[in-house]
Amino acid sequence: MYITERLTVNNVTGTAVAGGTATVFDTDLVAANDFYNGMTLEFTSGPNKARQATILDFVAAAGEISLSQVGAASGVGTGTIFETDLTEANDFYNDLAIRFTSGPNNGETRIIEDYAFANGEITVTLPLQAAPGAADAFIIEPVIEPWIPGADTFIIWTELDITTALRFDLPITSRFCKIVYIGIVQLTAGPMEMNFEIWESSAARLAPDDRNNFYQKILNRRIIQTVDQGGEYGESLSGDPMPYFDRDAVDEESTYMLHCRIENNPTVGYTPSDFAVTIKIADMGENA
User: How many CB atoms lie within 10 A of CB 113?
Assistant: First the structure.
């Protein structure tokens, strides 16, 4: 965060203190522990201007705000409804994302449809691959919501520091399209070593254990840059656009999707960071 970033929480104004991450940072807010929990944060200046997020934890020391929350499953439930060690009030985590960091669902992200205080019960919008086991760890964090300035361009800010892999889907109006441009910016200064991939399906059909159940990869870019090279990558495919066909049935997802994956390589030389991703597509129509 930047020291010039102004913010408001339920009409209380404040300033972010330089440092921290995209999900945990200090402010000049003064209040008791948990005072701002569940309230909406909105930045009013800086690179995050107009962005909103739910405060999941507030710590009086240094006015620390956390937009993410770690937890663990209890081993009771199914891939759709399961119990956890969370203790907040009913609906506190509704509409946020839950991303598993261990167990059979490691790397899987779902949207929380409903959260109940009793037994920390979570209901997700789409079933997980498997029922979470006892002590399976997860992170609750903001949902990636693409800004779409035009019908053919997505601009996505991941809003969290990626240290392993992150999957996300972008809604498209037709099953067929062509990818004409990709751009990736690492928002934390440092060396860059990561993979960006686009797959035609996220369903476990041909190879259930292959790359987190993706298959039919059509685009893969491994990007390695030194800190002096700036952490930015752009590529125009307009001369030879990449055809894309969403192979997941529309009734599985309610719409057609562009299936994407960022892997921030856990090797010497990578930088934990959030990313900004730009993808430009051209609609091919159903008869392409």
Answer: 14
Total-model pTM: 0.56
Host domain of residue 122:
69-141
Q: b/e for 203-239, b at 16 or more Cβ within 10 A?
A: beeeeeeeebbbbeeebeeebebeeeeebebeeeeee
Residue listed under structure tokens 């091919």: 284
Q: Where does the chain have alpha helices with state H?
A: 250-253
| Separation of alpha carbons 20 and 48, rounded Å | 14
CB 234 within 8 A of CB 225: no
What is the tally of structural domains in the chain? 3
- In this structure, the answer to whether residues 110 and 164 fall within a common structural domain is no
Closest CA to 161 of 235, 84, 266: 266
- 1-34 pLDDT tens trace: 333 356 666 667 778 776 677 778 888 888 899 8
